[in-house]
Each structure stands twice: as C-alpha cells, then as structure tokens.
Amino acid sequence: MTPSKLFTLVIGILIVGSLGIAGFIYYYNRGSFGGAPGPEKDISVSTFLPFGNISKNNGSAGNQDGSGGEISSNTNISEEGGQILQGTPLKQLVATPVSGFTSFAKGSSTLVRYVDGEKGHVYELDLAQEQLVQKKITNTTIPKIKESFFVRKGEGVLLRYVSEFDAIQTFSAQIKKSSSTSDLGDLVGAFLPENISAITPSPRGDQVFYLSSGSGAIGTVANSDGTKKSQVFDSTLSEWNASWVSDKVILVQSKPSAIAQGIIYSMNPSTGALTKLLGGEYALQGLLSPDSSKMLVSMLRNKKPNLYLYDIPGTSLVELGLETLPEKCTWNTASVTIYCAVPKSIPTSNNGYPDTWYQGLISFNDSIWSIQAKSSEITFIADLESLSRLPFDVATIASSPTEEFIFLKNKRDGSLWSLSLKK
C-alpha cells in the first residue's frame, strides 16, 4: 500500500471513530438508550415548581441577588440574638444536592435522615457526633430524585422524579433492612398514580393526600403505600398546593402567583369539608400552625411579599414588617414560635413574586429570624451568608423535634445545613 493510500485510510478511520463517539455522547445525553435520562436531560422540572409551568418572560430581572434589608418602624424587635457567631453555629451537613430530609430524637441525639438527589440513596447523620459520619442506610439506586418525603417515622420514603417518558413518578418505598448488620437495606414498595402534581404526608406518616391535575384537580387520601384510596377534593382549577397540618386539618391553597388572586382553605381529610380561611389577594400564600389557631400569610404589597399573622377564629391580620414567603418559614411543634429565612432585600421584579423566584431569575441572600406568635415580637438570629461565607437562599426550612436545631436546604446547590439554637 502506498504512503498516500495508507494516510487516507488512517484519516478515514479517525473520522468514523470520532463520529461514533460523538453519536454515543449525543444519544446518551438525550437518554435514548432507555433507563435513566443522561446528564444533560432535565425533563419538565417546571412541573415541580409551586406554580407549575409559568411563562418565562425574562423582562429586566436577570439573575439577581438580594442584599441589604429593611424592617418597618412599628415592628417590635428584640435585641436578643447578639453576634451571629455566638451561640448560633451553622454547619454544612451535606454538600451535595438533597431531595428531602427529616429529623428525629433518639436518646440524647438528634438524627437526620436524607435522600441523595442524584441516586436516591438514604443516609443518616447523628448530630451528637463531633465528626459527622454519613451513614448509608439503603443502596437502591433511583437517579435524579426531584423531591422526597419521609413517612412512617422515617422508615418509609416517597421518591418523586420525572421518567424518560415525561411522566411524574411517585414511588412509595419502605426501608427494608438487611438481615446482616454489615449489609445495606433496600427500598421496596409500590408506585402511586402517575403525574401527581402535589403530595403531602400526614403528621403520623401513615397516610398521604395527593392532587392529580388535568382539566381540573382531584384530591385523594390514601395510605402511604397507595392503598385504601378515597377522593375528598374536586376542583375545576388545576393549580393547588397542600400541606397536612394535623390529624383533622389539611391546608389546601391555590399556587401563589403575582398574576393571580389566591384562596386558602382548611379541609377535613375524612369528609372533604372545606372552610375558607382567606382569599382575594395576589400571590397569597399561607402556613398554618400545628394547632390550627394561627396562620402565617404573605401577600403582595408594593410588588413584594409581606408577612402577616392571621388569627383563625377571627379576622385579625397583624403586619410583621418582614418581607419573605411562608414556604421559607416553619412553625415549632408547640405553635408558639415561627422561624423564617428573610431575604436581606428583595429587588424589584417585572415578573412579580413569587414567580420570579420560582423561575430562578432572582436569588436571595437570607437571614434567620424568629417570630413569637402571641406577641408578634421578631428576633434576629443569624446572617447565613456571613456564617457560611456563601450566598444562601433557603428553599426548605424545618426545626428539630427538640428545637435545638434549624435545618436549611440551600436553593442554590441543594446542600443541607444545620443551625444550632443552643445559647
């Protein structure tokens, strides 16, 4: 073979090989080989947004960060809290994305269980340990979990993800422990109906309430494994959120948006009976106390979400002087104290709130405040950015059963943190 022909043959082989590799990468990223979607495929993430598929009008909002802050002059502010580095240490528990977590007391320890968002594995942390150890509980791999909820006292979990066929899947799993102490457990269970738009476990963790959307919405109460289903809610509107507050109360509310007036109901999970709590305000959103006596509410004022405390038996609505969303807040179990992540400032947005935040067009930098439900007194606790040395936009917040810790999930990267309240 002449040198020129050999050169031509080598070049041809290299070209074909390069095309083959490029084709493999392309089809892998598209998830075209079946199984889990490839790294670049992120199907219908907007379905998991609180307002579903919102039109993304970029306007002039851009990708902004909030900084600075204001407190109204009529707010009763406690001077307690002091320096943020004293008595309120912030610790990163998990650096990688977490899809859901729970905490419970065991003896003198506080344990945290969480689901790894990338693979769906369950892990556990003991906060009493000086050096945290990520104890792996299960080894069943379900990739790209968007959200998860622990049930049955942390021994079960609801895993939610989008399939390669663009359907929302909800897998109700029991953590099946291995007979050997050295082996990892498995996730064993059953799938709930496809395309559940919202789901909330009961406080006991033995039941769930879920919403299926189409031309309207259907609400169903079932055991956490999907058995013994009973329809209790029906609406011609499709965009709803729900939270199971107590044995006898589920809070059902329209998904908040700056372009829609909202409505909030309390619903009896046994009968489906609805009681209207509030309505008629844009971007309306509520967080009911565990005893159902008060509700933290946000509504738009000057194009920003302002917080109020609403007395359920009456019509009292007390302005708190804080600008944030109730989903960035949590009640303690005694219904006495509320902990909130409050943006240092909220930039002006053409798209309005909370839509702009849901769409990821604006991110916040939060501080933690407490609110006393009886007196409406608010107390500064910590500046998260100063403690972490990172931008910190809280997506999920919860307190531990003993109220020693607040747990925080950073919306920017899905990482999980604890903030100690011990003084």
Short description:
The protein is mostly beta strands. It is 9% helix and 43% strand.
Question: What does this entry look like structurally?
Answer:
The chain is mainly beta and about 425 residues long. It has 3 helices and 31 strands. It has helices spanning about 5-30, 355-360, 385-390, and strands spanning about 65, 75-80, 90-95, 100-105, 110-115, 120-125, 135, 145-150, 155-160, 170-175, 185-190, 195-200, 205-215, 215-225, 230-235, 240-245, 250-255, 260-265, 275-280, 285-290, 295-300, 305-310, 315-325, 330, 335-345, 360-365, 365-370, 380-385, 395-400, 405-410, 415-420. Strands 2-28-27-25-24 form a 5-stranded mixed sheet. It has a 4-stranded antiparallel sheet with strand order 3-31-30-29. The longest helix has 28 residues, at about 5-30.
What integer value in Å does the Rg equal? 24 Å
User: Mean of residue pLDDT?
Assistant: 83
Largest sheet: 5 strands, mixed
User: Outline, from the CA principal axes?
Assistant: globular
Helix content: under 10%
Low-confidence stretches: 2-47, 49-63, 67-88
Read across the widest sheet, the strand sequence of neighbours is 2-28-27-25-24
Count of helical regions: 3
Seen as an oligomer or otherwise, the chain set is: single chain
The count of DSSP E runs of length 2 or more, i.e. the number of strands, is 31
Taken as a percent bin, the fraction of beta residues is 35-45%
Which structural class best describes the helix and strand composition? mainly beta
> What distance separates the N and C termini?
84 Å
